[in-house]
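Onboarding guide, step 5: your first structure request.
Type a short instruction followed by the sequence, for example:

Predict the 3D structure of this protein.
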Amino acid sequence: MGKTLVLAEKPSVGKELAKFLNCTQGGNGYLMGSKYIVTWALGHLVTLADPEAYDEKYKSWRIEDLPMLPKELKLVVIKETSKQYKVVHELLKRADVDELVIATDSGREGELVARWIIQKAGFRKPIKRLWISSQTEKAIRDGFNNLKPGKEYENLFWAAQSRAQADWLIGLNVTRALTCKYNAQLSAGRVQTPTLALIVERENEIKKFIPKDYWTVSGKVNDFTVHWSSKNGDSRTFDKKKAEDIATKVNNQMGKVVELNKASKKELPPLAYDLTELQRDANRKFGYSAKQTLNLMQRLYENHKILSYPRTDSRHLTTDIVPTLLDRLKSIAIGPYEKFARSIIKGRIHTTSRLVDNSKVSDHHAIIPTEQHVDLSSLNREEKNIYDLVVKRFLEVLSLPFEYEQTTLVINVKGESFSAKGKIVKSKGWKEISSSGANEDKDQSLPPINKGEDVKLNSVRSVNEKTKPPARYNEATLLTAMEHPGKNIEDDSLREALDNTSGLGTPATRADVIEKLFNTFYMERKGKDIHPTSKGIQLIGLVPKDLKSPDLTAKWEKQLQLIGKGKANSMSFVKEMREYASKLVGNVVASTEAYKHDNATRVKCPDCGKNLLEVSGKRGKMLVCPDRDCGYRKGVSQMSNARCPTCHKKMEIRGDGDNKIFVCGCGYREKLSAFNKRRESEKSALNKKDVSRFLNQQNKKDEPVNSGNSAMAEAFAKLNLK
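The system replies with structure tokens like these:
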């Protein structure tokens, strides 16, 4: 009897599938049963070949050899995971294997993982697809009972491969052109460059901004606050004397209520989470990076099985999920969620088009809890925080609207208009679920008052304020800007077109793009704010204008979506990318700009003798060699969790061995021995052993220096060139 081979993306998922399919016979890199054999990739096992695979000359980086445009891009087995590829290849070639079930992640990149392995191995037998949105036993059972023909997902593969080939053609060519032209470790990509351009453009806006003084006028009526506004409805004036004259004219004067409007209003629940919205909220509330949130979601989906598939751009559910809502509510009717879940179950579940809409779901529905039993004690703090966000949002979406009565009044005093708004809550509805949501309404409560009533205005004063520059991006606002890059585009038709695209990258790739920009030192975190580095600012000045344009990149992403739906041609798209890569290389070669290492130190590289550069990484400062072929790096300082006893800010650790010292920006310095002594005397939890363990952990956490050396080669090999 023939067997069915099941290919998962990771060992952990493969082993779960094997358990369900009764595959208990252990093999090297696979598990087997009477009917099924389950094996797995380790992420990508196959990738696009490096340039030197096409021609020996590409081993050296020379500008005269560009652009690199092989007739056909080859697939190669990734060296580090070749052992597992061999296992999968041999299983695909087994005579008793009749068919293959692709069980990699249900998305564009998951399809690519499997199809490249299939292509490289030359597998020709029937293919089916397991397409599931959660890893629970029920979801797996339903998925295997409803396997889809592999042919239905071929377009998704063409889209994924087109993305990978576009990133190879543009990323590798422009990166080599920039690196050779300016003799610096510079890189560019189809998505990373316009994303960096957003950060640099915002920094330029802030630098050019000149604050202006303006004044507002407010006063009190019966203990509530009223605000002045002009006849045009403007609540501020740039004329100091005018503001002071108004305040003097109306203070302690009688006025009349000339308008009084009361309206019953409803605020509908928010939409369910997609990945980008969840990453935004996690960054705002907990300071988590986009990458950190995605990793936590992946664990909650894959290991704990209590949340649905994370890499989704949909905020709605499909009709087939509605019958499962009761079981999902029962699974979360625990701890802090029990009261609200039971209340929704008791009142019968009402769904509207704000939650259920087949037309607004692409590959996967919104992120919601699964039917799996939840043990909150098994989650760590970070996992709990993400789970809490998703569960509360799920409960909110299934709850009643927030209802209130809003009162708006206008008072006329000596010909000047003052207004106030008040709110009386009638029903908290969905806002009762999230404590932050319940307290976010700051509208004052107005006392009983009637139209035509005479009132006295007192405590009137004018307040001087200054206009503020646009805020720097943090990860939450950068994700929004990547999702909607058309907001800053003046052309109405182009902006409208962009609003209908997925923006820069996809929900699945944006976290990696942001992380790469930090790891290659184009931007850095200062608190929650993102600042471009000198390297990042200079790069945006050097790259061709088209490549930093968000509208062009978003249109490319739209083309990839259409390819995935079978509405656009993959070969045409790749042909366009080949032509574009040539154009971009030509632009770099013809440029007359210069690049300056303004972070160079006087410290010489011990390997090649060049002056080392000082860069800021995620965990402190490093010295790195500017030579792409050298790649030397050395840690200078690391940010610790120890607080300065003077100003209470986190201190840096500098030096080596027994010479390590703690240094604070306020000027405080303390030797490691003195630090330990002080901590012991304070009977702090952070003792000498903790410090030693902390330092060891820090030393193990070296990060990629930049994309110019082996780290770059590795990144390119994995096609993270967005």
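Each response can be followed by summary notes, for example: Residues 617-717 form one domain.
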